[in-house]
Specification:
Strand order of the largest sheet of chain A: 9-7-11-12-13
Number of strands of chain A: 13
Number of helices of chain A: 13
Radius of gyration of chain A: 25 Å
Shape of chain B: globular
Distance between the termini of chain A: 91 Å
Structural class of chain B: mainly alpha
Number of helices of chain B: 14
Distance between the termini of chain B: 28 Å
Oligomer: heterodimer
Radius of gyration of chain B: 22 Å
Helix content of chain A: 40-55%
Largest sheet of chain B: none
Strand content of chain B: under 5%
Strand content of chain A: 5-15%
Order of helices and strands of chain A: HEEEHEHHEHEHHEEHEEHEHHEHHE
Chain lengths: ~350, ~350
């Protein structure tokens, strides 16, 4: 029957086309865009453990999420950003990165637009190291265009220094890098010095709650975890035996473990001009009947902390505020808000504003 | 029967076949034009002539910039062709599943393959594949392995209890829930990165397309499709009558059901291992095609491949041009593109479409 013969012929044609085109293309070497051999290249290791060759200094950078923007600004390199993602764009629109207003958006952290990135001809793409799509996947997509892909997170406090040094090395900005790193490492060293001798029995037990009621955090190992932050400030998290990153916990269990300090996170922060929203959150916690008998509520050690001081790129501020909250007697002369002010004005070049902790620390 | 009425019948039948074949051809041409349009769509500012010149340059020599070549052959075409083959495969699998279960609500995922694949992917991600070692290959392999495991589980159940349509659907639902629950447990213990990877995998997406994976999907489809066509007459019979009558017509219903089940599961597993779970195509494309071309599986199966491809490619284009450079998730856009089409046909058609 003619129909059958046509169908078979069609199949054979499609089969041949598929095999021939795919086999050839996947093996064919794409001519990489003429690499500027006059540019110096260096080999760096990113946070995904990958060794990447990048030009030095990098002049054109595409960032696939907002942390790198902040770090690049601290190193005085925002003019090198030629492409940003949707998260960074939100901050631009909110007024936090006015200098990036004309920079084009290249997609989101989870769905980058590779054509747009290729069109901008960046030297390097800086992205998250362990959220999909992974740097290797993005590298595969950008292979024919000769663009380096580097995974740097800037939210893991235990590797922050290494990441900033890597970034500074790529930018060829050693002096600025040193100054910036010391700004924080000096603070952390001070905190460690003053809290290292606290005996185990006297360490404050801390219940740290997320945005949802009774959502708390485990997984101290990763260094990005809240427990890591609490311990860096000399405290001990209430559920150290849990490794799940974020989980819902039984209210009675919290009450039973009798925390000395209760901290709750809030999205309010830089753009908050008064603290009424913080007060509402605070009152809600202190009114919870199951928590009224805890040390924290009885002694008034319940605080609401802004994610602008304890999350993402600001995780490095966490211990600075927490140390003062946990041990006010050891940090009487310490003013976290002043440190935040210096950071915002000196390194970020923006005005100091916002509410970062409620009740305000003396 | 008089000679006249015989000739009439033959003529009518030829007319019927010609009409359907022309419809298929028209569908194919539409798909072709859509592909030509799709290859010119993208964030990079390439003129239409340049795009076609780049395509031409692959087979004959022509001067094109490396950038244009990279964009068209490395970024756009693999994604486009993966969409074509994935849409075709899922739609064909859906039509076959609906045929063997005589149930219009069935899709290739009814027997639990999607939950099993998601579980396989979650398990391998939890064990470190992709983030710590191995890369995507292990994730895909694990997804594929578990979806086949699920299919053989359903198959064994049907052997035990008889392969009636009801058994298939019930077994599929039960196994689907089991795998979903197991995946949920793994996700509970996963770190945030791994959890994101698991969720990200389950969203259907063509973003991971490359030539190798497209070739694998295309090959599996090209191998399975002729086999499906071989059973098209049997499917026609099984749709209209119950099993006993079908058996009396000489059809080995349980064998047909089993073979088609496994073929459908195979092609679906291959596709979703690469693309994640693209729902809705397998359910709706066969119905759309039935409205346009009727329920004769000799034409329905190729037709549904074409309509599945058209749906996926159209949805992908839409997802990329609605809010550039943000790419809307494929599954979401497919629903927005497919449902109105489907409702329009449902309301405007006068005759019963299902049987």
């Amino acid at each position: 029957m003619n129909y059958k013969a046509l169908l078979i012929l069609f199949m054979i044609i499609m089969f041949t086309l598929t095999v021939s085109s795919s086999g050839c293309i996947s093996q064919s070497a794409f001519n990489e865009l003429g690499e500027d051999s006059s540019k110096n290249t260096i080999k760096i290791q990113d946070s995904a453990g990958r060794y990447v060759e990048v030009p030095q200094p990098v002049e054109r950078i595409v960032i696939l999420w907002d942390n790198p923007a902040e770090e690049l600004r601290s190193l005085g390199a925002t003019e090198r950003i030629v492409g940003i993602d949707t998260e960074t764009k939100k901050k631009v629109d909110a007024g936090f990165f006015p200098e990036l207003a004309d920079v084009p958006v290249v997609g989101s952290w989870d769905e980058p637009d590779y054509e747009k990135i290729a069109e901008l001809k960046p030297d390097v793409v800086i992205m998250l190291s362990s959220y999909p799509p992974l740097p290797d996947d993005v590298q595969k997509k950008l292979e024919p265009f000769g663009i380096a892909v580097v995974g740097l997170d800037f939210y893991r406090v235990n590797v922050w220094e290494r990441e900033v040094r890597t970034l500074g090395f790529m930018l060829d900005a050693e002096e600025e890098t040193d100054r910036y790193i010391h700004f924080f490492t000096d603070e952390w060293a001070l905190i460690k010095e003053r809290t290292k001798d606290i005996p185990d029995g006297e360490m404050k037990k801390v219940y740290f709650e997320g945005l949802e009621s009774y959502q708390t955090y485990g997984g101290a190992d990763y260094g990005c975890g809240i427990p890591g932050m609490v311990r860096a400030a000399g405290g001990i998290d209430l559920f150290p035996e849990f490794s799940a990153y974020a989980f819902e916990v039984d209210p009675e269990e919290v009450a039973g473990r009798n925390p000395d300090v209760i901290i709750k996170g809030s999205t309010q922060g830089y753009f908050a001009n008064e603290s009424s929203k913080f007060e509402i959150i605070l009152t809600e916690i202190t009114n919870r009947p199951e928590l009224t008998d805890t040390n924290a509520v009885k002694s008034g050690n319940v605080y609401v902390i802004s994610w602008d001081a304890a999350a993402g790129a600001r995780k490095k501020f966490g211990p600075i505020y927490l140390a003062k909250i946990f041990y006010p007697e050891k940090f009487e002369d310490y003013d976290p808000n002043l440190i935040m002010k210096q950071y915002l004005e000196v390194f970020q070049g923006v005005e100091y504003q916002g509410v970062y902790c409620y009740p305000q620390l003396e | 029967m008089s000679a006249n009425s015989e000739i009439c019948m033959i003529e009518e039948y030829s007319e019927y076949v010609t009409r359907k074949t022309l419809l298929l051809f028209a569908g194919f041409v539409t798909l072709g034009m859509l592909i030509l349009f799709a290859v010119t769509v993208g964030a990079a500012d390439l003129k239409i002539e340049e795009v076609f010149l780049v395509v031409y340059s692959r087979f004959f020599s022509a001067k094109v910039s490396d950038f244009s070549y990279g964009v068209v052959w490395h970024l756009r075409l693999p994604r486009l062709l993966m969409g074509v083959f994935a849409g075709a495969g899922l739609a064909a699998a859906g039509a076959v599943m609906q045929g063997i279960t005589r149930n219009p609500l069935v899709s290739p995922f009814t027997i639990g393959i999607s939950s099993a694949a998601a579980f396989g992917a979650s398990l391998s991600i939890y064990l470190g594949a992709g983030l710590l070692w191995g890369g995507q290959v292990f994730i895909m392999g694990s997804a594929f392995f578990f979806s086949l495991l699920c299919a053989s589980g359903v198959f064994s159940l049907t052997r035990l209890r008889g392969s009636s349509p009801e058994t298939l659907v019930l077994a599929g639902i039960a196994i689907s829930y089991l795998f979903s629950a197991m995946a949920a447990v793994i996700q509970f213990f996963a770190s945030e990165e791994k959890l994101m990877a698991m969720v990200h995998w389950s969203f259907g997406s063509l973003s991971n397309a490359n030539w190798d994976s497209t070739a694998v999907i295309a090959l599996s489809l090209l191998l399975v499709f002729p086999l499906l066509m071989k059973y098209s007459w049997d499917l026609n019979a099984m749709m209209f009558v119950n099993d006993e009558t079908a058996k009396s017509l000489g059809i080995n219903t349980s064998r047909v059901r089993t073979v088609l089940l496994l073929l459908s599961a195979l092609v679906t597993s291959v596709i979703i291992s690469f693309t994640g779970i693209i729902g809705f195509i397998g359910l709706v494309a066969p119905h759309l095609t039935r409205f346009l071309i009727g329920g004769d599986h000799r034409f329905l199966l190729p037709g549904t491949c074409i309509s599945g491809s058209i749906l996926v490619v159209a949805a992908d284009i839409a997802g990329r041009i609605i809010m550039p450079p943000v790419v809307l998730p494929l599954g979401v856009v497919i629903s927005f593109v497919g449902v109105p089409m489907f409702l329009y046909l449902l309301i405007s058609r006068k005759e019963e479409f299902w049987k």
